[in-house]
Amino acid sequence: MNAWTHPDLPAFAVVGRVNMGKSAVLATLLEIDDNELIRVSPTPGETTRCQTHRVVFNGKECIRFIDTPGFSQPVEAMHEIQRMHGDGTPDLDAIRAFVKSTHHTFEDERRLLEPLVEGAGVLYVVDPAKPLRDDFLAEMEILRWTGRPRLALLNRRGDATGPDEELWKTRLGGAFNLTRSFDAHQARFEERIRLLKALLEIEETHRPALENTIRLIHDEWRIRREEAAETLIGFLEEALLLRVTANLTEKDLSLESRRSRNEEALSQRYFGKLASMEQECASKLLRIYRHHLLKVDADPGVYQGIDLASGETWRKWGLGRTQLAAAAAIAGGAAGLAVDVATGGITHGAGTAFGALTGGVAAWWKGGSLPDLRMDLRGGIQLGSGETRAMVIGPPRNPNFPWILLDAMLVRYRQMLDRAHGRRDAQRLDGQGTGYTRHFPAERRTLFAKWFGSCLKGKPNRTLEPDVFHAITECLEEISD
């Protein structure tokens, strides 16, 4: 029984020179950023034995990749295979005899060739920025002798190119069935899919299994996007419904110093809770997209300190004033229409007109104000020996606030998608970047304006939620492209 392959499964051995990015390619392709599963390190020779990584859907294995030790003595190994074979060009039988030999000099080469002898295809990873030396040519020859399906992968790092890149492509084209480029530190979903589709071009035996695997990956990615949309809707609703309350005595309210201190304490509580909600939302998204190394940077003061009157902030997140006024006017008109309907038409459309006018004007004038918090006093609560009043704070008065909340999470979502799993450097989701909401189609802005308004009033419109879910899912798909 084969140790590395199965006759019913497509299998590919990831091979190459040490420290050429084999493990990083595999980590990005399979979305594994855990060093306990795939060790990605600048230290040469981290992979010292073959490791199988299985792609499983619904409990069924669909494809497997085998991370192998890097070539350590390819020129010497090539000469040894030729010596063992004798005259003519070595073939798979010669490779098999080499693997079965007890020569301890070529342990890495014999280990990495074991899966190929059993039937695995080849995914050969090279760094085209490195000079093309004789040892790389020896690796190509050995892999060519196996006769297995062979894909060469130019693991480019950013836009950097080496002087020998065209020569690399020429030599690889002569020894491999197909050559493709891939950046293990930058590749996003579509690049990963293109790599899997390239395997289809070299592996005919298991074509149906590969096609089914690609379809399942697409389906699973769609499900993740829908889970992300649900997470964002839950966060936005919870954030817009957020209020914090403190019961205060008349003395607390009548003395300016005490009142100010209480208002400040409540404001800090409000923004602290908001930041916790944001952090939890981002953490859920990170789990959905299998990121363990990314961290969330949620500062309780981030919203309190935003200066929405500055041109920089308006260029970054939220709607422009004209967009905000138009969206609010339509949402206000819808609310007024409800009044007209409720009165049986007695108002002759005045409710609709008045709602649109007041909504648009309020959004225009308040759209550039600082996000000061709403403050309510609700009285009549009897506690102990005296009467108290409830001070309720939240949410910010600025009508752009919900749009800024949405933009903040969409920017972080894009950062998650941009983060390749083959990277091992520390990074935080800092929310830096330009927002998306001002580029929404008008009908999408109108929909969100209506739903945001209902949430801010404490009565989320449940009939709008299916449309909101669809709109956010569409938005996430656009960001993915």
Brief write-up:
By secondary structure, the protein is α/β, with parallel strands linked by helices. It has helices at residues 22-30, 74-85, 92-100, 107-118, 134-146, 165-175, 189-202, 207-241, 250-254, 256-288, 311-316, 321-342, 350-366, 401-418, 442-456, 465-480; strands at residues 11-16, 51-57, 60-67, 121-126, 150-155, 178-182, 244-249, 294-296, 373-383, 386-396, 427-429.
Structural class: alpha/beta
Taken as a percent bin, the fraction of beta residues is 5-15%
Strand order of the largest sheet: 2-3-1-4-5-6
User: Helicity range of the residues?
Assistant: 40-55%
- The gyration radius over C-alpha positions equals 30 Å
> Count the strands?
11
Count up the domains. 2
User: What's the average pLDDT?
Assistant: 81
**Secondary-structure element order, N to C:** EHEEHHHEHEHEHHEHHEHHHEEHEHH
Distance separating the two termini: 43 Å
Count of separate DSSP helical elements: 16
Give the low-confidence spans.
35-46, 333-371, 379-385
The biggest beta sheet, please?
6 strands, mixed
- Shape, principal axes of CA atoms: elongated
What are the SSEs and their pairings?
Blueprint (H helix, E strand, L loop, with lengths): L10 E6 L5 H9 L20 E7 L2 E8 L6 H12 L6 H9 L6 H12 L2 E6 L7 H13 L3 E6 L9 H11 L2 E5 L6 H14 L4 H35 L2 E6 H5 L1 H33 L5 E3 L14 H6 L4 H22 L7 H17 L6 E11 L2 E11 L4 H18 L8 E3 L12 H15 L8 H16 L1
Parallel strand pairs: 1-3, 1-4, 4-5, 5-6, 8-11
Antiparallel strand pairs: 2-3, 7-10, 9-10
Helix pairs in contact: 2-3, 2-5, 3-4, 7-8, 8-10, 8-16, 10-14, 12-13, 12-15, 15-16
